[in-house]
């Protein structure tokens, strides 16, 4: 069984050599740093496969080299996309939603605290206008006004003019714009 502390010390001692080798094969410092990180993660995850007393340097360089060539082969099969191929995907990647949520949170944080509070109480927490007014200790009209101003300001911050501005593609637009449909049941 490999001693984890000794293994870690051995990995750390080899980083400068791994990095120099990675730069020479990758030709790019950022890609080389990623390559070294991948190598170290693979080595750490396969600590049980390392035979203590053998040449750790050679083992790590082999992992780095194999990782480089695997990545190279993978990149050679990838197609550079200007958005044409991605637009034809049946399901868009989750990163769009993640980025939209991040933008929404940033815009929400730019609202004045009283507007943000009112909007969250009604829009996110499900309270009625009356309940939100009671929680905030203000008149019903004040809550409605705060929510209206908050929604208007969010739309400005997010550059949203209509429902068509939501969703990554035309299919999303079609779903958002479609009215209720009646289901037909075959008899």
Structure commentary:
- Belongs to the sigma-70 factor family. ECF subfamily.
- Keywords: DNA-binding, Sigma factor, Transcription, Transcription regulation.
- This is RNA polymerase sigma factor.
- Residues 16-77 form the RNA polymerase sigma-70 region domain.
- Residues 102-154 form the RNA polymerase sigma factor 70 region 4 type domain.
- By secondary structure, this protein is mainly α.
- The protein has 2 domains: 4-74, Orthogonal Bundle (Rna Polymerase Sigma Factor, Chain: A), CATH 1.10.1740.10; 97-165, Winged helix-like DNA-binding domain superfamily/Winged helix DNA-binding domain (Arc Repressor Mutant, subunit A, Orthogonal Bundle).
- Helices cover 69% and strands 0% of the residues.
- The longest helix has 23 residues, at 4-26.
- The radius of gyration is 28 Å and the shape is elongated.
Gist of the model:
By secondary structure, the chain is mainly alpha-helical.
Keywords for this entry:
187 residues, Rna Polymerase Sigma Factor, Chain: A, 2 domains, 9 helices, disordered C terminus, sigma factor, RNA polymerase sigma factor, transcription, RNA_pol_sigma70_r4_t2, transcription regulation
CATH class placement of the largest domain? Mainly Alpha
CATH architecture of the largest domain: Orthogonal Bundle
What's the N-to-C terminus distance? Answer: 68 Å
SSE-based structural type: mainly alpha
CATH topology (level 3) name of the largest domain: Rna Polymerase Sigma Factor, Chain: A
- Largest sheet at a glance? none
Strands, count: 0
What is the CATH H-level superfamily of the largest domain?
A: RNA polymerase sigma factor, region 2, helix turn helix motif
Low-confidence runs of at least 5 consecutive residues: 180-187
Keywords: DNA-binding, Sigma factor, Transcription, Transcription regulation
Protein name: RNA polymerase sigma factor
Family: Belongs to the sigma-70 factor family. ECF subfamily.
Domain RNA polymerase sigma-70 region: 16-77
């Amino acid at each position: 069984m490999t001693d984890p502390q000794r293994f870690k010390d051995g990995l750390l001692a080899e980083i400068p050599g791994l990095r120099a080798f990675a730069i020479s094969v990758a030709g790019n410092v950022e890609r080389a740093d990623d390559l070294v990180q991948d190598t170290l993660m693979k080595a750490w995850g396969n600590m049980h496969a390392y035979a203590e007393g053998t040449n750790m340097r050679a083992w790590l360089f082999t992992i780095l080299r194999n990782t480089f060539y695997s990545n190279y082969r993978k990149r050679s099969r990838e197609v550079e996309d200007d958005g044409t191929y991605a637009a034809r995907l049946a399901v868009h990647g989750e990163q769009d939603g993640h980025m939209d949520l991040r933008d929404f949170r940033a815009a929400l944080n730019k609202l004045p605290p009283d507007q943000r509070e009112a909007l969250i109480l009604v829009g996110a927490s499900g309270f009625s206008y009356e309940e939100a007014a009671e929680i905030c200790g203000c008149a019903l009209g004040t809550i409605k006004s705060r929510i209206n101003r908050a929604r208007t300001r969010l739309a400005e911050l997010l550059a949203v003019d209509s429902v068509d501005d939501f969703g990554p593609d035309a299919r999303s637009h079609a779903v958002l714009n479609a009215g209720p449909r009646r289901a037909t049941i075959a008899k």
